[in-house]
Amino acid sequence: MNGRRRRLPDPLPLRSHLKKSTVEELSEFLRFWGPHAKRRNGRGQLEDRLLRLMSDENVVYSKVDLLSDTVRGALTALLRATHFTSDLASLLRGIDSLEMESYQAEAALVALARRGFVRISRQPDWLPYGSSAYAVPREIGLVLHGLAGTDRRPFWQVFSAAEFKPAGADARAGAEAPVIPDDVREAVAALKDPFQTIAREVLDRYGGLITRREFLEQFTARGIAWRSAAFRDEFGRAQLGTVAHVDLKTKAIGIDDDALVFFIEVVDAWMDSAGVPEQDAVLSARGALMSDVRTTLETVRDTKVKVARGGSVYKASRTRLADRLGFPETRMIARADVAERALSIARGLQLVRTTGERRLKLTDKGDEWMRQPLIDKLREAYRLLFSDEVQTLRSIHLRGMHALLEKLLIKECDNGKVGKGEPDEKKQTDGDVSEVSPSVPAWRSSRDVAHRARNLYLLDLVREDSQRNRTPLAVCDGALTELGRAAHDMLTRDLFVLGLVDLALRDEEPVAVRLSALGRRLLRGDEARPADRPLVVNPDFEILVLPEGEIDDVLHELDRIAVRDPGSREVAHYHLDRARLERVTALDEDVDAWITFLRNQARAELPQNVAYSLRAWCAGVQTAEALRGVLVTVNDPAVLKEITAHARLKEHVLKIVDQQSVFFDDAVTDGELKKELEALGVFVK
């Protein structure tokens, strides 16, 4: 050798790779690349068949998916080498070195060679004498350049047109950032099929992002193939998007694949021009969940709710509880789900506790909570369900999207405007086509709001410098879509059940969303604007609540003395319930206060028979106090004062009977509490 470094040859052409292979090797290649292909005689036919298969982008990727992680890792490292060619030593010590032993890497490369992905050469023209060279054919290497990392631009440089950085030849040619079309819908309409169909569906159903694998699942059966180069050229020429490799595994999202990406500015413009989907009903939860939490607490107070050893409430108790709840029935939210949420809030806020007999018991905080105003109850429940401090079981991705959903709801759903094609409640009720008051919040497509939150979250996520530990959202090919669906579920289930958003439905499925009156009060801090006399009280004890103005607080109070017809939606139908009224009267509440409440909220004069009957129902109510626990009597009143002032013992006091006697719950006989008493010199017999 003359001391000059040999120049590597050009990338190995696939045709050359096949010509240099034996017939036996070609036959083995075909068993892998075309297991169902007919075996044809003749070397030329074998080469032609393999040339078509091994240069087909979709076939190449499908075969890569069959490789083990070790073999695929070796292939990925080799693709990052110059001209897709390297010797083993260079491959192991390079910047993108293999995280495996030399013998493992060599075995993986041999496995790739048996399948036709790699050609092994010992010719001195390739590398220094005595070394083996491993080369990926050019056509396969170009197909897999995204997997190899040569097109791994940071995600924000692909998703955001404002920060778009061209890659490869485009970058070397000095290509500039795209300029978003003035009319995105017109630009999409100008595309030829199948590109127009692809653009419309990916923008509408997938929020502008779809991975290659998910694309194949959704489009292949319809005869639409994945073609990276064609997509990049066609959508790039229209300034709409591109194709790039997206790797979010370091962000705990299971995506490492090529993806069709429409610029976020294009996605936003597409959504802004879409209007709101047609709808046939409006659903408002209002403060129903807080009423059901109160019903849960009343059930715990009045009945025996047993708890299993694992801490869960027995199914029979949950079923009885669900039957008492008044949350509006809907196909989206099962009554059992509402019962679970109510129990979770009651336990999470420490409104109930579990006794030594494994029963739920109302706490002093629970008793006080029932008397709080509706908005205060809602604020505590919202903080419990969505604050970072307590969301230990919620994926960090969902927590991040929640904050963005909240901002989007305030910005987009309460902007004081009603867009074209949006549902108009006034038109629904009386056919009036007059302009809607500016105070009416705007509707937005629920899917679009969820996709906006998903897209903004992804941009924020990939810009983070720190690599915090995260619980993975998914390790599947459709993780981006799954993330969007999770945001949609949070919007149309979690926030809806709390009463923070109203939903517009089509065929019983949510299609649009807006910030509710309770949502504006909680998230924006708006002042309440109570409805002016929304009740119609009939002599047969039926009460209609007209949906004109903010009626949430009225409904929350009415739930205490009346039963709601579960089938009622826009106009709530109630019937005054004697048992409920007697119960609240037994709790030292004045029946005249309830009569005054009905008079102040009724549009017409309260029927005389209603007021008379309410007083008659409550006139004979008798009360008694039943305590179940342990009576502790001490011989020194001073000791009793110490007991009732003790940090732990005072939580278990049911009632102080006299100066020397106190009623404890049965937990006082537990070992730990007995020790606390003994430390005070009190021994329980």
Highlighted features:
single chain; 685 residues; alpha+beta; 4-stranded antiparallel β-sheet; 32 helices; disordered N terminus
Query: How large a portion of the residues is in β-strands, by DSSP E?
Result: 5-15%
Give the strand tally.
Answer: 19
Reading side by side through the largest sheet, how are the strands ordered?
7-11-12-10
Secondary-structure-based class equals alpha+beta
**Sequence stretches where pLDDT stays below 50 over 5 or more residues:** 1-6, 416-439, 470-475
Arithmetic mean of pLDDT: 80
Q: In angstroms, what separates the terminal alpha carbons?
A: 101 Å
- Total number of helices: 32
**Helix content estimate:** 40-55%
Tell me, what's the shape? Answer: elongated
Radius of gyration: 35 Å
Largest sheet: 4 strands, antiparallel
Description:
This protein has about 675 residues and is of the alpha+beta class. The protein has a 4-stranded antiparallel β-sheet. Strands 13-14-16-15 form a 4-stranded antiparallel β-sheet. Strand 15 (about 560-565) and strand 16 (about 570-575) form a beta hairpin. Helix 2 runs parallel beside helix 3 and helix 24 (about 445-465) packs across helix 25. The N and C termini lie far apart (about 100 Å).
In short, what is this structure?
The chain is α+β, with helices and mostly antiparallel strands and 685 residues long.
